[in-house]
Each structure stands twice: as structure tokens, then as C-alpha cells.
Amino acid sequence: xxxxxxxxxxxxxxxxxxxxxxxxxxxxxxxxxxxxxxxxxxxxxxxxxxxxxxxxxxxxxxxxxxxxxxxxxxxxxxxxxxxxxxxxxxxxxxxxxxxxxxxxxxxxxxxxxxxxxxxxxxxxxxxxxxxxxxxxxxxxxxxxxxxxxxxxxxxxxxxxxx
Length: 162
Ligand code: FES
Hints:
The protein has 162 residues and is an alpha+beta fold. The chain has two helices and nine strands. It has two domains: 3-42; 50-160, Rieske [2Fe-2S] iron-sulphur domain (Rieske Iron-sulfur Protein, 3-layer Sandwich). 23% of the residues lie in helices and 37% in strands. β8 (144-150) and β9 (153-160) form a beta hairpin. It starts with a helix and ends with a strand. Bound molecules: FE2/S2 (inorganic) cluster. FE2/S2 (inorganic) cluster binds at residues 101, 103-106, 119, 121-122, 124, 137-138.
């Protein structure tokens, strides 16, 4: 073999260099885009945080409406989110229900007279435990919050469908 066989030709050198530089530049452009697309998935844990709402002593077996708010980071956008919940005691258990009607999203109101939540929009009704009353528009119960009680304080987390 001659010495000339081991040398890289000018064409090969340019090809390797351009491929390397091109790959490096492509990775530099793609990384931020991939990071941006995945960001909500990477920060999904924030949604399951618990937030103080009230003291356990304030609760009775009659649902009461509470408003609570917390700061939320959505990718690079930070905002204050406000939630409402009807909270009551079912024996020793704390139950927290969403105030949002499961028909089309109006806000329900608890009426102590007939122990039901009433929706003002289309006459939807829910029992005290949030079960939808058949024959009215909502087809599923009110959503329910994750609840945590610690040192006599009630914390609410994510709201879930039932
Ligand atoms: S939005 Fe509540 S019944 Fe339609």
C-alpha cells in the first residue's frame, strides 16, 4: 500500500466536515423545539400539588362553598388560578365537589331546602354527594377534588371525574 492510499481525499474531508457541522447545527436547532414540545409533560407534577382551603373546624355535614387560588406555571406562562368547591363532612371523611355542572359547565348552587345542587342554566340537579339526578340534563356526577387533611387543615388538589 502506498502512503497515498491512507490519506483522506479533499472530497472526503469536505464531506465529513460538512456532515459533522450540519449535524451539530441541526441538533442545536431541534433541541429547543423538542424541549418546548415536551415541557408540559416535564412539569405535569405541578398539577397534583395540594392547596390549603379551610380549617377542619369550619366544616359541617352541609356543603359550603369555598374559593381558593394558587399560582400556576404553564410552560413559561405564570398565572393565578381560582377554583371553587363545595366541601362537607360525610362522617369523618371530608368531601370536596366541583361547583361546575357536568352538563355544559355552569356553576351550581347548593340549596339546603331540598338538599340538592341546582344548575341555573338548564335545570340540572345533583344530590348532596354530587350524584346527578336522572331525568335532568347532566349525565354524570359532579367532579371531585383530591382531599388531604393535615393538622386540622383541609387541602385540595387535582379535580377528578367520577
Ligand atoms: S349547564 Fe347545568 S344543566 Fe346545563
